[in-house]
Amino acid sequence: MVAKFDSSPEAEKETARIEAFSDGVIAIAITLLVLDVKVPTAQELGGASLMRALLRQWPIYFAFVTSFLTILIMWVNHHRMFRVIKYSDHWFLIINGLLLMSITLVPFPTALLAEYIGHAYAPTAAAVYSGSFILIAILFNVMWRYASRGGRLLGAQHDRELAATITKQYRFGPLLYVAAFALAFFSVAASVGLCMALAVFFALPGTTKRARVTAQH
Amino acid sequence: MVAKFDSSPEAEKETARIEAFSDGVIAIAITLLVLDVKVPTAQELGGASLMRALLRQWPIYFAFVTSFLTILIMWVNHHRMFRVIKYSDHWFLIINGLLLMSITLVPFPTALLAEYIGHAYAPTAAAVYSGSFILIAILFNVMWRYASRGGRLLGAQHDRELAATITKQYRFGPLLYVAAFALAFFSVAASVGLCMALAVFFALPGTTKRARVTAQH
Amino acid sequence: MVAKFDSSPEAEKETARIEAFSDGVIAIAITLLVLDVKVPTAQELGGASLMRALLRQWPIYFAFVTSFLTILIMWVNHHRMFRVIKYSDHWFLIINGLLLMSITLVPFPTALLAEYIGHAYAPTAAAVYSGSFILIAILFNVMWRYASRGGRLLGAQHDRELAATITKQYRFGPLLYVAAFALAFFSVAASVGLCMALAVFFALPGTTKRARVTAQH
Amino acid sequence: MVAKFDSSPEAEKETARIEAFSDGVIAIAITLLVLDVKVPTAQELGGASLMRALLRQWPIYFAFVTSFLTILIMWVNHHRMFRVIKYSDHWFLIINGLLLMSITLVPFPTALLAEYIGHAYAPTAAAVYSGSFILIAILFNVMWRYASRGGRLLGAQHDRELAATITKQYRFGPLLYVAAFALAFFSVAASVGLCMALAVFFALPGTTKRARVTAQH
Known about the structure:
homotetramer; 10 helices; 71% helix; mainly alpha
């Protein structure tokens, strides 16, 4: 209660540093998979043409693009939460850290999926892939609820419509990823497709005022 | 319309975080190729002297320097856009993310070119190289047009001359890179030369006021 | 003395840049070990199932999670110090740099411990592991004492209770890690357990005002 | 001239982003060599004990510590310049970019020196090592002179004593590194020793007011 009114610029500075640190970690995670995009050397070509050798690497490009976009959407969501979150405390730092750890891992299940897609072990890979999103969706919920419960860490004049949109949009995330996880054992395509549909859903702005203004433009 | 006038410091903070995140991603992309600059071990030298072994690696140095300078020029251009862009919205974040993804990939086509220059597959490498710049030039245009169309995300008091310069300078970028792409199949040297000439062109400050002031100094 | 009163915004900007640079270094260090989390390729599986191959890698996951959490706690502590530190000087930059260097190294002893746990050389690995924390604990103390001695670099209106908590919490860190180091030669489990207990201890907020406010919430 | 007086907060924001980007690049460069600090696997030990295997890697630790400290000192110097530099222009961004490129490369000559110290090719390695510092020292001078000539990019109320100290301290850097380069062909120890003495010299605060105040403390 009191914390909310002491020294507003102090508070601003605190979330500024959390955002800066988060941006650093997410920026690294988002570029990590580029390290796997290797140039095929002239010796490795064998009889194949360079174009064919480049095309043969498609799962690596697929993993890179998918990881990048997925983490980008997570960054946009993280960024959006901080349009209403203006305060911070000790446990919030810890929860944010756990969320960052799970985001950092995204390139791993994505590369796993890329490696085993079309393979007999594809269901295992799809399960690990959707399973990692269950974890991330739960952590986004925990972080948002911790911050927004009773307005604990929200700004005094925060955009209430945006806060409501976030609450609504996040609520069913974990359950839907659990469905994607279960689907993995029946149909890899359906499981991965649901994950991607959910990514598109979280990439949508919701129905916030600012977004509508822009749309009317 | 309304978005432009609500809470100016809020807006400032928003572009601040986009810039910070972009800086992080670009900073990582710009240093990634350093990881390929490996020290030849004493065992690898064979009969050669260390100096000869170091010189033999010239394509790696070439790729590092070229990638670094290319990405640096992109950063300068990104930075310059944000001297007039003062607002942000959801889709702007997504477009900026796609631009960052394409910038992050620059070390790959550059290393490919360095590996195959002088080789029978050089035209393929030069085509991939110039092709990646078509994509980046298009994304710079999309981002700039999205932000500047009707002044959507520009500051109320923005430098109109600088905005006009950017619009003019970007307009022909994609087409000229398409020309470089077509040239790759006739002359690798001409294709790569055109790409480098275009990089120098985008490194020029244009004719903005500040640049002229500095030049008169 | 005088330094404390000259140009307060200048001072703010200075610690802002130290914090930004520190965040960058720590963000990289915290994600480095992800590079070791490799996808087992289809060829490497041998007769084993993918799930078995993934589980066989547990020491790598363990090292990643432990390193991440350990460095996260260090970041939270670094961040907390800068809630009261508002000034900077030349030697403070150097001390902070040495602390960052030691934090950057954390993934190495952690990976070492993960590789040799349960092995005949486990005591050596545990000694290196706890030994690296002795160094870090000493550097945290040196940095805090340099900044807080006589209030040298603290803000004029700093939270005195928080400063006292930090002093108290850091005081016995080095000695307790020396105990963990000595224990390594008798019981690896006890040594590593003590290190982890200490990590949890440093993850606690202490008894600062803000933390209590939050708890009452 | 005019540039100096237009929109002071604008100017502040501009150097803020240069500093942020520079911090990002330097933070990555400073941690890159950690990737070379590999854990010897149980299979690689052969008959040797783990402690012996760890000690055998000393040149890698030496390269890591030396690179880290060298780049740290460069960061401190970069940071110090920006205590008086408050404006920016197009060419300043480019010069800063070239300086960052050269700083990014530091781990390479350092690893080279570590690999060949005590080897017949040590003079070549020492020449490359000191040669890279000639380049960096020149770029620091070019950047500082570009910014400070006629006060071009300095703040109106900048600390004149600090500016004079920087000018004086940088002036002989390139020449002394040329001497270290020449020495490499006669005595590797003398060449490397001179480089390290110069690093210590640039780590000194000079005789700025703030430093003296702190010392009197």
